[in-house]
Amino acid sequence: MEWCVTMPKIELHAHLNGSIRDSTLLELARELGEKGAIVFSDVEHVILKHDRALSEVFKLFDLIHVITTDHETVTRITKEVIEDFADDNVVYLELRTTPKRNDSKGMSKRSYMQAVLEGIRSVNSVEVDFSHKANADTSAHSHFVDHLCNGTRSKKIYVRLLLSIDRRETAEAAMETVELALEMRDRGVVGIDLSGNPVVGEWPTFLPALEFAKKQGLPVTLHCGEVPNPDEIHAMLDFLPSRIGHACCFEDEEWKLLKNLKIPVEICMTSNIRTETIASADVHHFADLYRSNHPLILCTDDSGIFSTSLSSEYALASSTFGLGKREMFDLAQKAIDFIFACDGVKRELKMIFATALKKLN
Ligand code: 5GP
Known about the structure:
Blueprint: H1 2-6, E1 9-15, H2 22-34, H3 40-48, H4 54-68, H5 71-87, E2 90-97, H6 109-121, E3 127-129, H7 138-150, E4 156-166, H8 171-183, E5 189-195, H9 203-215, E6 220-224, H10 230-238, E7 243-246, H11 252-261, E8 265-267, H12 269-274, H13 286-291, E9 296-298, H14 310-321, H15 325-334, H16 343-360
Parallel strand pairs: 1-2, 2-4, 3-4, 4-5, 5-6, 6-7, 7-8, 8-9
The structure holds guanosine-5'-monophosphate.
């Protein structure tokens, strides 16, 4: 479905270290193998294996973090991931990552994020907008959009960042991440995510940091209902997050609550199917939410780990549920309402979609 590739798309649920190219991961692992830091032959098949249960995915992340957590590599993978999304005609990307401390590399959460910013700045195959001051001269942006829509200028991608709290972290580490996010609001950080192995950690540990973020006006999205845990799902919905991700293990009562609250859901079909949290595409809750007109956004989750792309996710939903080009375009466009960036960016995205619509027909 070529049109799934060519139409503009919005990605709101992509983990940096889950979106690395296989080729880059293998190259980095081979280099570490040559230095004697890991045994390459032990990790090669782990990287190349495609069907993994959810628990195996988190084991793979531990390996990826060993391979990628130094400043230079973080910069490289950030650059490549943005280039790959831009290549797939993603026009707005909210990229999430867990700021990491790695004393052996002299890395703090702040310096990790500086390496991410360096990666964003080093993208040169596409124009990147990664901070948008409320009072900035919007005429320059509109001028750009004009050019973009007329096809007289190279591609542009808006990139914003969400800082993730890993469920293995302490309350203090979670608060440190929120404080860092607040400090970086003028450098493209637009929100907070709670992620990590869903069977690890307790909701009350993260609540103070998440409440603080909310109080400071920083939107929060939560990985919610990846495993059956009704008490946690209820507590998360009571928190009134700005969005949630996954929602795979909801029961009738939780669906009712979610729909009443109209909390947008980031849907990651391939990820849910590969990790067997959902049996197959045709029984995915996308269908029910779509038919109920509930706010939802198609996303990739971990395009590297699950060998997918946002256009593949659109193609999968389209072919599974019999949705046509125009319906998928409308779905992509509606995602504008759920981004965490400011109204100025929303206006510009609306112009990009309006122009693309003329070409669609
Ligand atoms: P990073 O934050 O290191 O850039 O991206 C990888 C991290 O994102 C993982 O270690 C994990 O904490 C989180 N993550 C990636 N995919 C998933 C997922 O499907 N579910 C959950 N709960 N967390 C994920």
